[in-house]
Amino acid sequence: MNAAGIEHSRRRIMQHGYIGMGGRLTFAGTVVTMGTLNKNDKETRCRMSDRYSRQTVLLGREGQEALLQTRVAVLGCGALGTHIAGNLARAGFGHISIVDRDVVELNNLQRQALFDEGDVGSFKVEAAARKLRRINSEIVIETQVKDIHNGNIERFIQGCDLVLDGTDNIPTRMILNDACVKNRIPWIYAGVIRYEGMVMPVLPEGPCLRCLLPEIPPTGSMTSCELSGVLNPLPPIIAGIQCTEAIKLVLNKTDSPRKLVVYDVWEQRFNKVTVDKNPHCLCCGKRTYTFLDNPERDIVMGLCADSVQIIPPRDTDLDLEKIARDLAGSVEILIANDYMLRFIADGKQLTVYRDGRAQIKGTGDNGVARAVYTRYLGL
Amino acid sequence: MIINIRVNGKDKEIDTDNVDNLKQLVTTLVQQEKGLIAEVNEKIVHRDLWAQHPVRPGDVIELINFVGGG
Predict the structure, then answer these.
(1) The domain containing residue A354 runs over which residues?
(2) What is the DSSP string of A100-145?
(3) Nearest Cα to A136, choosing from A244, A296, A211, A27?
(4) Cβ <8 Å between B69 and A193
(5) Which of chain A's residues have a Cβ under 8 Å away from the Cβ of B39?
(6) What is the distance between the alpha carbons of residues A61 and A194, in angstroms, rounded to a whole number?
(7) Shortest distance, CA B8 to any CA of chain A (angstroms)
(8) Which of A41, A117, A242, B21 is 20 to 30 A distant from B41 in Cα terms?
(9) Are residues A209 and A198 in contact, defined by beta-carbon separation less than 8 angstroms?
(10) What confidence tier does A338 reach under pLDDT thresholds 50, 70, 90?
(11) Same-domain pairing of A217 and A307
(12) A48 within some domain
């Protein structure tokens, strides 16, 4: 390669993080010494194998190879999901599928790693994938811009060796628990809110999440990061514990009996609590998948005393811009684009997404929220 | 009989004539049980066993709300 060619290649690497030369030759982002850049370059091959050197010391080459052969689904790409995906990509999990239907908002940047100001307005999974492919171009990153529900979750987890929980609500977790137990796929529960986090690996034989939480708590007893806040050092800690459990699972070193980690980042209090299988558990005991098999078409869920979430019938695809035009003049529209419509009506603030999911603020009454939702969206 | 236990990091006296099992203890302490996880001496006690689970002197009990955010 001549000097002009080397300079051209250097600019491409610094810009794109990779170079392809008639075959598949990839680099992590900041290769700096420009020799003859071709896939037979011995220095290149050595540098690529150095990627996991700090890990193979701990896990061995066989352990690293096991990670590279692992296919994992990350459900949710928010506070937990972004940290999870980043950890797994850097660790060299060979195939990572990420599912989330949301777009990046400014308030996400406080805690959702992988996103920056330039990503606001992008679909989260697409912004995440762009970053992840620059972190590790040797693995496969797949994305799905989809809401996760009982009609599609088994498609997302099919063929996976492991599922990591990055979801943000309990009903979805109950569906996830059913789906993974039914399909005999290990999964790792985690949750974060305010200053507290939890993690528990769930293996198909149990104990499962339903051993801990037999049913969905009613209105007013649940909350969300949006409503209650979350301290931003917490998600990476909990995701770090989750990903450590993921590595242990791949290496067949999961604790037995199973442990629930409970962590308070403010008090710096860390507990590991033993969880035995509940022999009467409907899910891992009786193999009854109440949430996965639920024929109910929508879920109306109180988030707290002043907010309700509605997850509508499957396959809804709203033309939000048309709805905004139809409503203009009768409501106060705050945000209107392809992905999200936010407006004030009847003293409530409604935020509606394209798949019909909505949050209604200003009431904790499910019936009132449903009525407002139906009145203005006709659903 | 008055016994001493520890609940959520705080020492507590309870009268076992009134509260002698975990279910009764939870009912006296919290309003909403359904999102609650009960840990006794570093082990989870399943909800359907709360009524049969005696509260003993020196028990260290944590009543934790399930974390659903992410």
Answers:
(1) 299-377
(2) ---B--GGGTTT-TT--GGGTTSBHHHHHHHHHHHH-TTSEEEEE-
(3) A27
(4) yes
(5) 262, 271, 273
(6) 39
(7) 12
(8) A242
(9) no
(10) confident
(11) no
(12) no
Domain-ending residue, one of A241, A275, A309: A275
- Give the pLDDT band of residue A367 (cuts 50, 70, 90): confident
Q: What pLDDT score does A307 carry?
A: 86
Contact B38, B45 (CB under 8 A): yes
Question: CA-nearest residue of chain B to A274?
Answer: B43
Per-residue DSSP letter, A169: S
Tell me, rounded to whole angstroms, the distance of Cα A56 from its chain centroid. 27
Give me the pLDDT at residue A177, please: 97
Same domain, A211 and A259: yes
Residues A66 and A33 in one domain: no
Indicate if A178 and A148 belong to the same structural domain: yes
Domains defined for chain B, CATH in brackets: 2-65 (3.10.20.30)
> A100 lies in a domain?
yes
Residue at A119 is within a domain: yes
pTM of the shown model: 0.76
Measured between beta carbons, the chain A residues lying within 8 angstroms of B70 are 76, 78-81, 165-169, 190-192, 225
- Would you call A211 a catalytic residue per the annotation? no
Nearest to B68 among A170, A218, A273 (CB): A170
Residue whose entry in the numeric block shows the structure tokens 């075959």: A23
What pLDDT shows up at residue A41?
45
Which phi and psi angles does A189 have, rounded to 5°? -70, 145
Task: Tell whether B39 is within 8 A of chain A (Cβ).
Answer: yes
- State which amino acid sits at residue A161: D
With contact defined as beta carbons under 8 Å apart, do B4 and B26 qualify?
no
B33 vs A174, residue with greater confidence: A174
Distance from the Cα of residue A335 to its chain's centroid: 25
| pLDDT higher than threshold 60 for residue A140 | yes
- Choosing from A225, A243, A281, A284, the catalytic residue is A225
The CATH number of whichever domain residue A371 belongs to comes to 3.30.310
C-beta separation of A167 from A204 below 8 A = no
B69 touches chain A (CB under 8 A): yes
User: What value of ipTM does the predicted structure carry?
Assistant: 0.90
Name the residue facing A260 among B35, B44, B47 (closest C-beta): B44
Tally of domains in chain A? 3
pLDDT bucket at A72, cuts 50 / 70 / 90 = very high
pLDDT on residue A314: 59
